[in-house]
Amino acid sequence: MNAETTDPHDHHGSHRGWVRAGGQRGRWLEPFLLLSMSDGETYGGALIAELNGLCLAPNGVDVGMVYRTLREFEADGLVVSQWVADEGAPRRTYCLTDAGMRELAEWTEVMRERARLTEAFLERAGEPVAGVTEQQPPGGA
Fold first, then answer.
1. Is residue 7, in this structure, part of any structural domain at all?
2. Domain-embedded: residue 93
3. For residue 32, what is the DSSP state?
4. Per residue in 33-85, pLDDT tens?
5. How many CB atoms lie within 10 A of CB 110?
6. Model's pTM, two decimal places?
7. Judging by beta carbons within 10 Å of its beta carbon (0-12, 13-18, 19+), is residue 28 exposed, middle or buried?
């Protein structure tokens, strides 16, 4: 249990649900953005392509939300960015800081717990209902 709280269900502090306290963004965006940056420096377009490749949103991720989240990450000290003008148009690259790596580690624990809960749900959903020997299709048989 988190030492900062007395809630027995709050095992992850700021990651109480899927989004940091006060956050309104999609349930998967923050952890997957952090994970996508964990291999080193990258840029927004590559992050968006990776997120879309994972099918995080049915119609693609909200590009504006991705860039707002990256700015929030930078303001929170989780990433640093810089403009790079190698070939073609300049673009901003992003890189996780040590604090960003710690945040990713926290999200990893959250996702492990979610995986455990999801597995428990799926196991339970696959079990026959107590007292019923055979499930009937809707409308009876």
1. no
2. yes
3. H
4. 999 999 999 999 999 999 999 988 888 899 999 999 999 999 999 999 999 98
5. 20
6. 0.70
7. middle
